[in-house]
Amino acid sequence: MSLELLKEVLHSGIWGTIGPYSQKAAEALASHMGAKHCLMLYSGSMALEVALCALGVCQGDVVLVPASAEKIVRLSPNLAGAKPIECGGEKTGPTDIKAALVAEPLIKCVVLDANVVSGLEETSRLLSSRGVPLIIWAGGQVFSGAGRTLTKFCDFAVYTFSEGSDIYAGCGGALLTDEPRLFHIAYALHNCGRTLGEEASVFVDKAVGGNLRITEWQAAIIYSGLKNQSKE
Amino acid sequence: MSKLAIFGGDPVKHKPYPGWPVVSKRDEAAIERAFLSGKLCRGEAASALERRLEERTGTRHAVLVSSGTLALELILRGLGIGYGDEVILPPYTFVATLSAILFVGATPVFADIDTETYNICPASAESKVTQKTRAIIAVAVGGCPPSIDRLSELASRKGIHLIIDAAQAIGAKWRGVDIGAYGTAAAFSCQNTKNLTSGEGGIITTNDDALYENIRAMLEGRHEKYFIESCMTELQAAVLTSQLEKLDGEIVTRERMAAYLDARLHGLPFVRPLMREKEVTVNAYHLYIMRFDSDALTDKGLSRDIVLRAVAAEGVPLSAGYLPLYSFPFIKTEAVRRMIGGDIDDSPLKNAEKAGYYEGSWLFQSVLLADYEDMDDIARALIKVWENAGELAARSRKEER
Predict the structure, then answer these.
(1) CATH top-level class of B25-242
(2) B-contacting residues in A 124-153 (Cβ below 8 Å)
(3) Do the beta carbons of residue A178 and residue A37 sit within 8 Å?
(4) What is the average pLDDT value for chain A, to the nearest integer?
(5) Could you tell me which of B6, B76, B100, B203 has the fewest CB atoms within 10 Å of its CB?
(6) CA angle, corner B331, sides to B325 and B332, nearest 5?
(7) What residues of chain A lie within 8 A of the CB of B198, using their CB?
(8) pLDDT at A207
(9) How many domains does chain A have?
(10) Which residues of B touch A170 (CB under 8 A)?
């Protein structure tokens, strides 16, 4: 199925710049995950960078990350100019987060790795009560593990489609959120500051953007993977 | 009845200009081969293309990445440029040149452009150098190399980096040498409209071994501070390799058609092509940029934008192009202020103002892949609009009222 879609992409002449498969993949993934909004990006690390910037994380801020998270998660705050502070052990739970918030009261944001987290619901409630935004890295767990319905617990859930992921597209990332305001800011950030329709402009007048878009090649493979799974 | 198509007359051009990208059977075979290899990233197609681009540009290193924006960002991060540093750039360029600087937390400083080439003016760039300046990003606007000799000398004298934003300039040459070989590093874009495309994509070329190692480390998760997982996929590399086969032929065609169009525009009192410096041996012509004479237009009661609408109605896709980046609303927002820890100087620059608002206009590269008759139509449309300037001015004034 993927190869036929790739040939279709080739002959359409639309190989990038948010073509039809980028949109189809975003819709299919949002539906699969039970999220309101989904943005497809070139890679998981770019999705993390966009999520942090959309939440206003920047130079001088402090971001909490689990000590045992994947390297891509632990280093992600640096992409926004922020300083990562590590916490927790093999698993990171609400007690670790609470202690970190006491030790470092100016924490701007928390990035958790779904693979090394415990007590997610409680952690989510704790951070929400403190007004600290939460990003959850689900890695490549599109069909397996803790990947689904994460947006209920966080501001952004981030997925990757690189090697070892449930769907392998060479590279690729997705950002899911239930917040329309965050979605529109993230959209502008990943698309050179361009907005998604006029109605969104009210949200993005403070955003800068670069080209962090997914290609149609990647999006077609991801879309195909999601469709195949839903058939099964 | 009016002769002008904008008022219901018969347009000069009825058939469309060539579309882009041009797809061949070779592309299809390349995609199939890459997909069936099962290795969709960091495979043979990307590796082989990097070697080929090194050979083509005469550089020691070429790196394929996800976009031209990221290529610039990686160069800046790889050179350790960030918060507290200043980077000089021209305001007449795509927003990505600016956003790459902002993404690394550095402060962008705008230098004016040269009025004849629309590329960064070396004298203006020099006047913007301070103790905090770490680099100049010189953009090859429309695919035409900037003043490489003067900029290289300036960068060397001031001890700063010259980075070439060659996003639109694949195949361009200065003194017979590929533009990718100049400066500390160069960044190319392979976005869907570019002369060499894979939909999205970027290429970095450099002779700086330490920078190359830093960039590779960031892409492969070996860097101590950054993990930027954005190598170009095998599918993109396969398409690029296939598209590369026809690039040189297309460059020759674009240059030939541009020279012909230059000659057709020669002597017109209200518009002329941009000049290129004598050291530019190949202009990649991602854009064919022409300059309207705003004084001549004003004398006739016209503006560039009115003329562009009338020319477009004649079937010639001439567009207005860039506005100066310092005029973008987000420049003055709190978000940007926080990113770089201060303000961006958004003072208007004379030549950029003139180019952005009154004089600059473009034809897209695929127009230059058409034939001589199509080039004649461009000149015919411009002449027709000029010959009917009186009516155009009068009716435009009436519409405005």
Answers:
(1) alpha beta
(2) none
(3) yes
(4) 92
(5) B6
(6) 140
(7) 15-16, 215
(8) 64
(9) 1
(10) 40-41, 233-235
Tell me the C-alpha to C-alpha distance, in Å, between residue A88 and each of A109, A136, B225, B287.
16, 15, 20, 54
Mutate to test the interface with B, among A171, A206, A214 (most CBs of B within 10 A): A171
Would an 8 Å CB–CB cutoff place A218 in contact with chain B?
Answer: yes
| CATH architecture, range B247-326+336-400 | Alpha-Beta Complex (3.90)
pLDDT in tens, A34-68: 999 999 999 999 999 999 999 999 999 999 999 99
* Structural domain includes residue A129: yes
- The minimum CA-CA distance between B9 and chain A, rounded to whole Å, is 33
DSSP 8-state code for residue B355 = I
ipTM: 0.95
Q: Report angle CA B299, B305, B309 to the nearest 5 degrees.
A: 115
The rounded distance, in Å, linking the Cα atoms of B381 and B315 is 8
- Give residue-wise pLDDT tens across range A95-138: 999 999 999 989 999 999 999 999 999 999 999 999 999 999 99
Evaluate whether B21 touches A13 at the Cβ level (below 8 Å). yes
In a domain, A103, yes or no: yes
**A-B contacts (CB, under 8 Å):** 183
The model's pLDDT over A24-36, given as tens digits with 9 standing for 90+, comes to: 999 999 999 999 9
Q: Average pLDDT in the B175-188 region? A: 98
CB proximity A20 to B under 8 Å: no
- Give the confidence band of A147 by pLDDT, cuts at 50, 70, 90: low
**CATH number of the domain residue A156 falls in:** 3.40.640.10
Contacts of B172 (CB under 8 A, 6+ apart): B140, B143, B144, B145, B166, B178, B179, B280, B282, B283, B284
Inside any domain, residue A200:
no
Q: Does residue A14 sit within a domain?
A: no
Structure tokens at A16: 């990038």
Query: How confident is the model over B221-253, as pLDDT tens digits?
Result: 999 999 999 999 999 999 999 999 999 999 999
Single pTM value for the model:
0.97
Strand pairing report for A173-177 and A156-160: antiparallel
Which residues span the domain enclosing A55? Answer: 2-7+20-195+209-231
Question: Domain ranges in chain B?
Answer: 25-242, 247-326+336-400
CA separation, residue A134 to residues A105, A110, A137, A177, B61 (Å): 15, 5, 10, 11, 39
Task: Quick: pLDDT tens for B324-367.
Answer: 999 998 999 888 999 999 999 999 999 999 999 999 999 999 99
Four-residue CA torsion sign, A184, A182, B220, B33: negative
